[in-house]
Structures are given as C-alpha cells and as structure tokens.
Design brief:
- By secondary structure, the chain is an alpha+beta fold.
- Helices cover 33% and strands 24% of the residues.
- It folds into four domains: 103 residues, no CATH class; 91 residues, no CATH class; 205 residues, DNA ligase/mRNA capping enzyme (D-amino Acid Aminotransferase, Chain A, domain 1); 125 residues, Beta Barrel (OB fold (Dihydrolipoamide Acetyltransferase, E2P)).
- The strands form five sheets. Strands 4, 5, 6, 7, 8, 9 and 10 form a seven-stranded mixed β-sheet that branches. Strands 14, 15, 16, 17, 18, 19 and 22 form a seven-stranded antiparallel β-sheet that branches. Strands 2-13-11-3 form a four-stranded mixed β-sheet, with no helix packed on it.
- Strand 14 and strand 15 form a beta hairpin.
- Helix 6 runs antiparallel to helix 9 and helix 10 packs across helix 11.
- Keywords: ATP-binding, Cell cycle, Cell division, DNA damage, DNA recombination, DNA repair, DNA replication, Ligase, Magnesium, Metal-binding, Nucleotide-binding.
Length: 562
C-alpha cells in the first residue's frame, strides 16, 4: 500500500487530550511499519484538539520544552512516593536505562480516573509557567500529575519534563499525515511548519489554513537532501546531464534576506544568526527577498607568489569551537573565521525559484554572489570534468580539499523537499578506520535498555591500553546479543552502570574526521565514530596504536578542538 492510499480512520480515537497523545507516542515508538505510524498520525490530526495539534507539530519538529526540574529531584520525589530504598531505585534505573521510564514503572498504579482528560497543551503551557516557580510548587504539580496518570502517560510526561522527548518520526511523515487532513500541498505544509514560530501563540489555522499568511520573514524552506550513491557513477547515464560539486564538511544552512533583515538557519531548523555575526555584513550587499542554500564552513585566504588570493575551506573541527557558544569573542572570530559556500538559490525577489531547473538557478546564483563580492560569501565551485573515470580521479582529492566526497546533481532538477531518489546524490569517500579493543560496556536505551550496547574502545600505547572513543552503532541485533553475553560473562569491575571487561573483542571503528583534544586521554577526538565491523579474525595484539592515531591526526586533523 502506498502513502497516497492511506486514509484516516472514520471513528474518533477512543482517547482524548493527553491520553490520546500518549497513545500516539506508544504506537510510533513500538510500530515497525511505516503505514501503521502514518495511519496513527492521520487519525490523531483528524480528531485532536487544534491546540494539541500545534504542539505535536512543534514537538515532532524538535521544539522541545525547556527542562523545568533536575533528574535528581525527580528521583527523590519518586523514592519518596514509592518508599523504595535509594539503592534499589538506582539498580532499577541501571537495568531500565531510561529515567522517565524507570519512574513510570516504579510509581504505584493509580485508581484515579480523570473525567475531563487534560490536554497536551495544558501540560506544556504549565511547564512554561512553572519554569520560574518555587520548587515546592513544581513538586506538587508533578507528583499530583503522576498520581492521575497510567504508566504510558507518565512515561511521556516524564520525557517532556526532562527535555529528552524524541520520537522516531521523520519530518516527511509528519507532512504526509497533515496533507491528509488539510487542503494544502505537502511542499506548502513543509514550508509552513518550518521557521521560528511559537506553539503558545500560533494557532493551527495560523499554520495550515488555506489562506493563512505569515509575518515570519525568517522562515526557511525545507532542505532538499541527497541519497548516497552506492553504485558506479556510470549508472547515472551521460555525465553531461550532471553537475558535480564538492560535498563540503560543514553545517548545511540557508541565508535569508527579507524585510531588510538577514537570518541564518541550520538544516536542523536552528536559527543561528547570532552565532555567525560576520554574516551581518552581507545584509547591505544582498537583495531583499532572497534565500540561498549552502554550507557554513571555516575558511582561510591564501596569497600566491604572483599576488593572487584564493579562499579555501578548513577542517570542520575549527567550526566546533564556535558551535554551542552563546557569545562569540573577537578571538574566536579571528581563530575560526566562517564563510558561507553557496550552491543553490531558492528564492529571488520574493519569488519561489525551487521549481526552476538547477542550471537556471545556478546562473542567477553566480550573478548574485559575484555582485555581492564579499569574502564571507563564496560560490561553491562546479567541478569541471569530461568523463566518469576523470571524475573518479578528482574524487580522490576530497580530503585534500577538506571535503567528504562529491555531490552529483541533475542539471534539470527542481529543488525538492526532503530526501528524494534520482536527482541529487552524495558520493562520499571511504571513512577512516582503525582497529581497537573494547574495554568498557554500558547498557543502551529504549529497546536496548537490557543489553550492553554502548562501548568504549582503546588502542595500544606500548604495553598499556588507552581509551580513545565510544560507539554504540554498527552491529546487527544478533551481534549486539553476542557482545552482551560476552560482557556478562567477562566483567572485571563495576562503576555504576559501566562494566570493565576483559580486553578481548576487536572491532574496526570508522570515523569521518580527527582532531586534537586535551579533554581526552588519548589526545584525539573522532568525528562520527561507529563500529564498522567485528574483527573476529584479529587478536588484541593486532590492534592499532596511539601512534597510528597521531599519524592520522598529523596528516588529516587539526591542531585543537579547544
């Protein structure tokens, strides 16, 4: 059955208010079938209260409420209600692996039933009100709420309380579900629910009525995402049909100039204007009604012996020194200068250009960038090549250009919404790999909360083992079960939830980048580490050394993450 064939249920959900939301979260968290998840969302958006629907869109788009109480207090209040010894609570927590779920399971079953189920919006707006309230006021609200909820409702309530609410639902699925309940095209919905709107003051009609207008000039467009190219490039047809670019290692973003204001958005829909003050210089150079897609990258300007200058990217690790800082100092601006490498045009003169072919968008983009002529706004170059074999050779130069590989974009392609097959491909180079031995293990979260699936790995430094990274993905369920059994049989020491294990299991660790770090015993930090494969063919004596890591750092890394 295709998505277009799925229709909302005709009978109203048996639950209402917060109960209906908890039921939705349970279905989304336990179902393995896309159509079941989509049907649950359609049913919810068909029958839920309008204010609750706005909050669900906000939550599923990453707009989580701020934490209003510490984990320690939640534990204390649960122990107080249940009269459990604290050691037993801790053991339960280590077994379950999730604080919200542990509390939901330990609290006594309630015999109370609510005659008018409070809404999702009620609880979330209470969180906002209670944020500055006295601890006793927060305690009474939270403990009273616990005692009127069932186990599933408490679990969701606790996840919202702690700011750790996450759900495995894509933005595309949310959009598709909404498209079944409102008279709007999916692309329009995706654009409407993006941006800097407040679920407290925004109504469902403001967001998704047919004639809704928005005064949010900062609103970005949904990003067009590429699929990984696993086949040979020859399978794409004639090379003349494709535009090749570097796949930059930075933060995907959009620069927006509207109403004589400039905004910077990340792909994760985070408004990052204040984090990159150097971009404000572009406000006077760019025309109004403009949206540019590109990459936020640290850069350097070099001058050749002939006196010509060139701008080139620097490693992603330098960008990390700027991420997460509320205030950027002059020193940081000098040490990690940031440019925007532009590669697509989404809006020009307040007109949506996404349906125009890439070739046409590129010509106008080049015109805009050349006219602005500023070092902080660079045109991401198109790579010149004549054949697929020639492009394969160019791809081998990716790391020399601080790129992750190549992007291949069909010249006739429109700028679509989300991840679509066929027009945009990412053709990444192979990751770095290193063989290491597992030395620590910890239980996972969610469905893996009873298995040891979070591991710490070490390399050799002469006769000692030096921990250098953690990883918790890359194995099959069967392999995770096998490693879990090994950990339980071969634990040497226990430190809270962490087990020290016999250093016998060897794994190949893959990662995308490496940088120096004085926060790690090894002196290095890896980017996107994960388990590439279990090396059952190797012994701990055959693993890589700390010197191997430092050689990688010398060749491909940066001097410091600090």
């Amino acid at each position: 059955m295709s998505d277009t064939e799925i229709i909302p249920q005709t009978t109203a959900n048996s639950q209402k208010g917060f109960s209906a939301f908890a039921e939705l979260v349970s279905i989304l968290g336990t179902s393995t079938k896309t159509n079941d998840k989509l049907r649950a969302l359609i049913d919810y958006f068909t029958h839920a209260d309008s204010k609750d629907k706005v909050w669900v869109i906000a939550l599923f788009s990453g707009r989580r409420p701020k934490r209003i109480v510490s984990s320690t207090l939640l534990q204390e209040w649960c122990v107080e209600i249940t009269h459990l010894p604290y050691w037993l609570f801790e053991e339960s927590y280590h077994t379950v692996g999730d604080l919200g779920e542990t509390i939901a399971l330990l609290l006594p079953d309630t015999e109370l039933t609510s005659t008018d189920d409070r809404s999702l919006s009620y609880y979330l707006e209470q969180f906002i009100t209670l944020n500055k309230s006295d601890e006793n006021v927060r305690k009474k609200f939270i403990t009273d709420s616990w005692l009127t909820m069932n186990k599933d409702e408490r679990f969701v309530f606790n996840k919202l309380l702690t700011g750790g609410f996450r759900i495995g639902v894509s933005q595309k699925m949310i959009v598709n579900a909404l498209a079944k309940t409102v008279e709007l095209d999916a692309a329009v919905i995706a654009h409407r629910i993006s941006g800097n709107w407040d679920p407290v003051t925004t109504t469902f009609s403001d967001l998704l009525s047919e004639h809704a207008t928005t005064a949010d000039f900062s609103k970005p467009y949904p990003f067009f995402l590429a699929y990984a190219l696993d086949a040979e490039p020859e399978t794409l047809g004639s090379p003349e049909e494709w535009q090749a670019e570097w796949k930059w290692d930075g933060i995907r973003g959009q620069i927006i100039k509207r109403n004589n204001e400039l905004f910077v958005w990340s792909r994760g829909e985070e408004l990052m204007t204040d984090k990159f003050p150097e971009y404000q210089l572009l406000k006077e150079l760019l025309p109004d009604g403009l949206v540019i897609d590109g990459e936020i990258i640290p850069f350097q300007v070099t001058t050749s012996a002939e006196g010509t200058t060139a701008v080139s990217p620097l490693p992603f690790a330098l960008l990390q020194t700027r991420i997460g800082r509320k205030n950027v100092t002059k020193k940081q601006l000098l040490e990690a200068p940031i440019a925007f490498f532009a590669y697509d045009l989404l809006e020009y003169n307040y007109e949506d250009w996404r349906t125009k072919p890439l070739a046409e968008r590129r010509i106008k983009l080049e015109e805009i960038i050349h006219k602005a002529s500023h070092v902080n706004l660079q045109l991401s170059p198109v790579i010149t090549y004549e054949s697929w074999p020639g492009l394969i050779e160019i791809r081998q130069q990716s790391r020399d250009n601080y790129a992750e590989g190549l992007m291949l974009k069909r010249k006739s392609s429109p700028y679509q919404v989300g991840r679509k097959v066929g027009d945009w491909w990412k053709w990444k180079i192979d990751p770095f790999t290193i063989d290491a031995v597992m030395i620590y293990a910890q239980k996972g979260h969610g469905r893996r909360s009873n298995l040891y699936t979070d591991y710490t790995f070490a390399v050799k430094d002469e006769e000692r083992l030096v921990p250098f990274t953690k990883a918790y993905s890359g194995l099959t369920d069967k392999e995770f079960a096998q490693v879990d059994a090994f950990v339980k049989r071969n634990s040497l020491e226990k430190f809270g939830p962490v087990r020290t294990v016999k250093p016998e299991l060897v794994f190949e660790i893959a990662f995308e980048g490496i940088a120096a770090s004085n926060r790690h015993k090894s002196g290095v930090a890896l980017r996107f580490p994960r388990i590439n494969r279990w090396r059952k063919d190797k012994t701990p004596d055959e693993i890589n050394t700390l010197q191997d890591l430092k050689q990688m750092l010398k060749m491909y890394g940066t001097s410091s993450l600090e």
